[in-house]
Amino acid sequence: MSQPRLLILGPPGAGKGTQSANIADEYDIAHITTGDALRANKDMDISDMDTEYDTPRAYMEAGDLVPDAVVNAIVDEALNSADGFVLDGYPRNLDQAKELEGMTDLDAILSLDVSREELIDRLTGRRVCDDCGANYHVEFNQPDTAGICDDCGGDLIQREDDNEAPVRNRLDVFDENTAPVIDHYGDHDGFVAIDGEQTPDEVWADIDGAIVAHAD
Ligand code: AP5
Fold first, then answer.
1. Could you report the per-residue pLDDT of 91-103, keeping only the tens digit for each?
2. Do 32 and 79 form a contact (C-beta atoms < 8 A)?
3. Which residues does ligand 1 sit against, CB inside 6 Å?
4. Of 24, 88, 179, 196, most Cβ neighbours within 10 A?
5. What pLDDT is recorded for position 51?
6. How far apart are the CA of 197 and the centre of ligand 1, in A?
7. Residue 7 CA, ligand 1 centroid: distance in Å
8. What CATH number labels 5-29+83-214?
9. Residue 35: how many CA atoms within 13 Å on its side-chain side?
């Protein structure tokens, strides 16, 4: 099998980050995530791109989309240096999807379905390691010691945009902008819809099967 080129889609909290980590490990490919790239560069100066705000921070903390020009440039650069990859968090609207078509072909498109109420529980209960970014949940995926990362001993924190008001806004932004992207890819040969409400292991089994079926 050549290195697979994969896209993972789904609403905020569907498990894209959790499952992308499994995919990247299993297939030894790059995990390209616009959310992490933007979080690492929240205060970069984007004023020369004629944007409403001068940095990504204000968009992200409200749960709004960062302007396309910023995100397209991040993905273009990351794809240029990747052989196989799993792309997570992009495209988030139809203009980004069109842009991606000019950058690369895709072997499989994995779309995670999860209900809105479950997404709110997952996101408001999520905790992330401030050092290594590992994901936990106050109920579904607790660390061995409360507040401490099992992997690296770092502090577990709540993301600013995981408070309830930004979570609800992120879900509305998804319905308006990103749900049409999922419809857009529905006819692609490699499109696979996956029940994201199963346990993480069950979701992973479905994803792995879909990759084996669609990658060369
Ligand atoms: P981003 O970081 O991409 O956030 P998101 O899409 O909102 O996705 P999340 O990371 O919140 O959720 P996830 O699906 O990865 O779920 P996870 O695996 O963590 O984007 C953040 C912001 O950046 C955006 O709001 C925007 O401002 C900006 N941005 C990013 N990309 C952009 C773009 N292309 N254009 C413009 N702006 C952009 O799981 C969630 C929780 O559930 C965890 O606690 C986990 O442990 C738990 N969990 C996972 N799977 C299961 C399961 N099967 N059962 C029970 N619990 C589970």
1. 999 999 999 999 9
2. yes
3. 10, 12-18, 34-35, 38, 59-60, 63-66, 71, 89-90, 92, 96, 122-123, 126, 135, 137, 140-141, 161, 170, 199-200, 203
4. 196
5. 86
6. 15
7. 14
8. 3.40.50.300
9. 19
- Res 59: pLDDT: 95
* pTM of the model as a whole: 0.94
Can you tell me which atom of ligand 1 is nearest the CA of 96? 34
Helix (H) or strand (E) holding 201: helix 200-214
Identity of the residue numbered 111:
S
Pocket test for ligand 1, best of 137, 174, 195 (most atoms within 8 A of CB): 137
* Catalytic residue list contains 92: yes
Find out whether 45 and 99 touch, Cβ atoms under 8 Å: no
Query: What separation in angstroms does the CA of 107 have from each of 7, 42, 191?
Result: 8, 31, 9
Give me the mean pLDDT over the 25-54 stretch.
93
- pLDDT the model gives residue 86: 98
For residues 155-165, average pLDDT: 96
Give the full edge-to-edge strand order of the sheet including 135-137: 135-137, 126-129, 156-157
Identify whether 122 is a catalytic site residue.
no
